[in-house]
Model the fold of this input.
Amino acid sequence: MHVLSLRRPRSLRKVMLGVVGLTGFLVVWQLVPTLGLINSQYLPYVTDVFARLAEEFRDLAFWRRLGYTMTSWAIGLAVATAAAVVLGTIVGLVPFLRRATHTVVEFLRPIPSVALIPLAVLLFGIQMQAALLIIIYASFWQVFVQVIYGVADVDAVARDTARSFGLTRRERLSYLVLPTALPYLMTGVRLAAAVALILAITAEMVIGNPGLGRMIELSRSAGDAVGLYAFVVVTGLLGLVVNLVFRFIERRSLSWHQSVRGEEVL
Amino acid sequence: MTAHTVRIAQRSRGRGLGRRVAAGFLYPLGLPFLLLVIWGVASTSSTNRFFPGPLTIFEAFRETWIGPAFVDDVLPSLYRLALGIAASIVIGIAAGTLIGLFQWLRELLEPLLEFFRAIPPPVLIPVVMLLLGITDTMKVVVIVSGAVWPILLNTIDGVRATDSVMSETADSFQITWWERLRFLVLPAASPRIMTGVRQGLSVALILMVISEMFASSAGLGYRIAYFQRNYLIAEMWSGILLLGLVGVLLAATFGVVERRVLRWYHGIREVNRA
Done:
């Protein structure tokens, strides 16, 4: 109780300052074209952008496009995570494989996934598969690397104890390896979710498969600045939601773990 | 010790060395070699023209990139990339230190920064294009507008997490503001800053490629897209290979710099672990 009463004015101040900052930004945005610092053709009024947003939110076509983007995001993330967990666990548990694959991983991982866009277009044209190829490639490495670290992080004493107690392979996996690797996995999935969203929208912008990214590109080429800014704001909000949701999932699934528990005690 | 045991010891050491050398080569190079062979065999036996063999790609690589194209397309791209990265690091660390040091500033800007970080960086390309037109400056600004966020946010976190005992010690020794920044705040934040820089590097590379695919008539990204549109498959693959090499080089350079900058930090961690 005591702690709460001490805390409240602080968090209230924090919220207030945050609101002030946000409002200040919007006011400056409105003032810049009003004062003619930047022509409103290039930086539209914030009020126009928000009016447009409200209009889009009522439009069914907008939600369908959002659906396209989120579908390729979800499929890509799911496939990448599943593949990375299986391969990462196998490679992480077998020292021989870990050493043998090291060079290949270190070469393939830094290849920017957008370099594969031309290949994806050749193979699949402007279908969703082209976007999926890029999304999966990019988000796979995020999870894969974390899973390898996580699986290799098993405490030596715990592992020897499990051996001497005669735990079967299956039991070792579920009671020893999984709890150790889960924090790493969740970090990887959270990073991969953000990356997958970036690439889902990028692919739509560059390849032209339907979705929010394509709307951004269409607004740009049509010279529709208001629409362009409105869709950019939408992607930002989308990114924010994805971040918050995955941070929440991470905290919930790791509520037993020291890193989360430790924070709550304080 | 008899001569016999010495000889045995030497022999086994020699064999150990031989095995170590073999392992040193086999482990890093075995699988890549194997994969290339499999790719080569598969591409000669299949009729899919989208996957030329590695030898064709290497040949195309030599013909395409070694020569004038290197000066016309590759160097300007790398120059813009370097400029963008340098600007992101300077802006990110400077603004991040400032915001991290003042709590009210941090609370004022936090929701905004969260939002800007969440915007997928490539989305900013059309916006920057609209504001600045299609110029070289625009491409550098695009790179900065995406790569600066991870550096900025990590710097803020790093500065904020400065050890309280150390900052109180610094207070009681009455060191100047500048000394405090130079010898306490920045070193304490440097592990986080380097994490941010690493994330920023990959974003910068992505933005370099896409900004050129989008709005350019030269550069690495433009070339690769051009090859694809004209069905120059082997050349396209050679471009992907080149981008991969750039990515690997960037990661390797960063690794060297990080080890130098954070040598003290890794040292401390090893001592703590031992």
User: Anything to note?
Assistant: Chain A has two domains: 1-42, 44-265.
